Amino acid sequence: MRAMKKGLMTLVGVALVGSQLVACTNTSTKTPANTAASTAETKTATTPSPVAAKPVEITWWNFPNFQPLDGEVGKYEKQIIAAFNKKHPEIKVNLEMITFEGGPQKLNVAIASNSAPDVIYDAPGRIIDWGKKKLLAPLNDIVTDEVKKDITPALWKQSMVGDQIYMYPINTAPFMMAVNKTVFEKIGALDLLPLSRPDRTWTMAEYEKALQAVKDKAPEIIPTGFFAKSTAGDQGTRAYIANLGVSRFLSEDNSKVAINTDNAAKALDWVAKATKDKLSVAGAASLAAADVNDLFLQGKLAFTLNYSAVLKAQNVPNKKVQFEDILLPFPTLDGSKPKLEPYLGGMAVFNNGNPDKIAAAKKLVDFIANDPEYAKKNLIQTGGLSARTSITGLYSDPEYKYAETARQFITDAPTIADGYADIRTFWFPELQRVLTGGATGKEALDSFAAKANEAIAKAKKDQAASK
């Protein structure tokens, strides 16, 4: 991938200067009427005409971050653009909706061919990688001190490279599990879920008991899910293993892998055994995150691993049967507080070498994040919580209130690590080896650690060489 060209353009302000008309008179005295007419004439001639804002055209690529209106993907985004144009009629915004399946590759091709969009709403996994490659325009100039103080360091870490802000954080929610509460009500086992606890924390032993109850009393339902086909949704599997094994995925400074502990290895071995025991979905090595969530939405799966308040809202029209989905933190081996990675959505501006387009794109970002009327509407339409700690109580749904509570468990996400784009590609092949009997949990995690640590070291070396 090659860096996009950078250029400087100078904006030239145009001043319209009118010449004052001076009336030539004789020595006779002017009448009051003549004086008034002369004054009005002078005022008209010396007042500059307002300079029209320079027309600019930008392109916005957007994943389906906002819930569709009337079942139409992109309809809400068009409303945003219409409202934006009332304040900035000089900026034409071309919207292109992309999917989570094909969008990442389309972005890679666009960047490689110097045809990236001007602005995008995405997540740190891709945005920070682009920022490290100098593909983005810093947003420091549109982030106020008030906003800086109102967003936690954990979220800022996912939005910055060094002291440069490359993503404007907008919506967030902790990634968690979800459970089909209706299934447990039907089998009379609701007491096996930790719903009576304010923080809903629970142990691996309690989780296993709940899975066994589903297997015994609702054999038509798959107790829980797992997936290892691709990098999509990797936060679900790594948080699942890390919490079951009371471990971290990476070290606190993100300098090396920390998931290859004995407890995490046992947790991964447990996943393989649970599959054989029919407590976990069969064929997980060939299932993607979307496949597992689809089973959940069909009512065929009691627990799913890759969920959040955002996904809960987005999945409402996708349910094939009606049931109540409830958010739960990942269980831990000893019942200790879980470590939840945050979902974070925000906007980034590509540095396409045109200062006018960059400035216009920043205005769109600022409008979506901070407009007095639309900022709150936009948050609710994403189904997420605000990235700003002062903005709460957007929803009356008790699951959203719990999601606010669960923010206490948020930890740093590994997406900010050097070499993360490569790190994640090594994860699923190792999971597949365990699921297919080709390696033990410890062998797989040690192999992953060796490859990932090498990628981290290489990325650090490359960054040092580019400075």
TrEMBL record:
Skewed-composition ranges (Low complexity): 33-47
Q: Which domain of life is it from?
A: Bacteria
Chain coiled-coil ranges: none
Q: Which SUPFAM superfamilies match?
A: Periplasmic binding protein-like II
UniProt keywords (A-Z) are:
Cell membrane, Lipoprotein, Membrane, Palmitate, Signal
Q: What are the boundaries of the signal sequence? A: 1-23
The record's region (Disordered) falls at 29-48
User: Which Pfam families does the record cross-reference, listed alphabetically?
Assistant: SBP_bac_1
Q: InterPro entries of this UniProt entry?
A: Bact_solute-bd_prot1, SBP
Name it. Answer: ABC transporter substrate-binding protein
Q: Could you read off the lineage of the organism from its UniProt record?
A: Bacteria, Bacillati, Bacillota, Bacilli, Bacillales
